Amino acid sequence: MTDLSLFGHDPWWLVIAKTVGIFAYLMLTTLVVVLAERKIMAYMQMRVGPNRVGPWGLLQTLADGVKMALKEGVIPTGVDKPVYLLAPVIAAVPAFMAVAVIPFGGQVSIAGHQTALQLTDLPVGVLYILAIASVGVYGIVLAGWSSGSTYPLLGGLRSTAQVISYEIAMAMSFAAVFLLSGTMSTSGIVAAQDRIWYIFLLLPSFLIYTISMVGETNRAPFDLPEAEGELVGGFHTEYSSLPFAMFMLAEYVNMVTVSALSATLFLGGWHAPFPFNLWDGANAGWWGLLWFTMKVWGFLFFFIWLRGTLPRLRYDQFMKLGWKILIPISLLWVMVVATVRAFRNEGYEIKSIALVIAGVVVALLVLALAWKLVRGSRARVADEPAPTGAFDPMAGGFPVPPMPGQTLPEFRRKSVVTQGSTDA
């Protein structure tokens, strides 16, 4: 059983202080990551990026927030107004609630009270995070439905299918962690990684969770619910001012949340990385907060790097990746970890190196199948014969451009006779 005796004894003022501290941590990280994303992507694309507001453009995010707050909120006439206004709140609030069970550090002393750098913990803490994250999608679905417009509705439906598809794979990657650590509490999982991190023992789970967390947060290349080229803006097309800002806030706070959860489950949480862990006091006091923040920012950079590198997937590729690759391999890997756990329970000693080797093999299988999916789809498209001959651009009821090899029918422009030429 996991020892949760450290939680539930803090005085009321310390609970409030922790809550305010976590909220400030999330808001400050969001402000910084928005600016960092614009600057890093500008560097990748050989641009300057924000450099006008404040020194070196450091106040650009703050200026953007003030601008959105002061803009006029336009509400279309055809919306379901109560649901329309409630949807951004439903999307934003769960993003903050999920961080309540994330351990930011070890035990510290605050005003003479020994407490953990964690608001609370539960015997099923990771399942709490999964449940809260599932509630957030209701905000996106309701925003698309209540807008009374076609593109937002399609974006909301896409988000529903996306969450169903990728939360299954994400939950099964959690199951492997539960089996190996013997607990579902976040503090217990971090304590179980004091010697070796689970990224080495559970590499396929880490890889599947990393792919799933990008899909869960609707980030590129999985930003299909808000695909600008197809759906204008997706579920938030009809939003402006503060409601739109709340959707953006929810997206970036969710990025921090899934990054913090990944660091907790697979990177040892607040434990110091090598070579800092060779120092005896590396995990003592407030040092854990520093190591934890560094790991979270490593994942945030990964989000930015993906957005600046990979193009958006087609929707059929995205669904195939979830249902035909991630979920079956997740089931296979959970069975492997469960077998190892069963042998250990029966007294058979299985070396960790065997689990590492099996994990590397399964991880390479995931990458190979994903690469084959993307490359195979491109090859099929390239091998398809191009249509030839004339075609009717208005056959479907609206004009479409010709495909390569097709020719437009001959079109004669009607001569326009002006009044002056008629008189002449």
From TrEMBL:
Keywords (A to Z) from UniProt: Cell membrane, Membrane, NAD, Oxidoreductase, Quinone, Translocase, Transmembrane, Transmembrane helix, Ubiquinone
Main localization, broad class: membrane
Enzyme Commission no: 7.1.1.-
One BP annotation, GO: aerobic respiration
Any single Gene Ontology cellular-component annotation: plasma membrane
Catalytic activity: a quinone + NADH + 5 H(+)(in) = a quinol + NAD(+) + 4 H(+)(out)
Compartment(s) of residence: Cell membrane; Membrane
InterPro entries the UniProt entry points to: NADH_UbQ_OxRdtase_su1/FPO, NADH_UbQ_OxRdtase_su1_CS
Cell membrane in keyword set: yes
Membrane topology listed for this record: Multi-pass membrane protein
Residues passing through the membrane, by range: 12-36, 83-105, 125-145, 166-190, 196-215, 252-272, 284-305, 325-344, 350-371
Top-level taxonomic group: Bacteria
Any GO MF annotation of the entry: quinone binding
EC class: translocase
PANTHER family linked: NADH DEHYDROGENASE SUBUNIT 1, NADH-UBIQUINONE OXIDOREDUCTASE CHAIN 1
Job of this protein: NDH-1 shuttles electrons from NADH, via FMN and iron-sulfur (Fe-S) centers, to quinones in the respiratory chain. The immediate electron acceptor for the enzyme in this species is believed to be ubiquinone. Couples the redox reaction to proton translocation (for every two electrons transferred, four hydrogen ions are translocated across the cytoplasmic membrane), and thus conserves the redox energy in a proton gradient. This subunit may bind ubiquinone.
UniProt record similarity statement: Belongs to the complex I subunit 1 family.
Quaternary state and interactors: NDH-1 is composed of 14 different subunits. Subunits NuoA, H, J, K, L, M, N constitute the membrane sector of the complex.
Name of the protein described by the UniProt record: NADH-quinone oxidoreductase subunit H
Annotated source species: Antrihabitans stalactiti
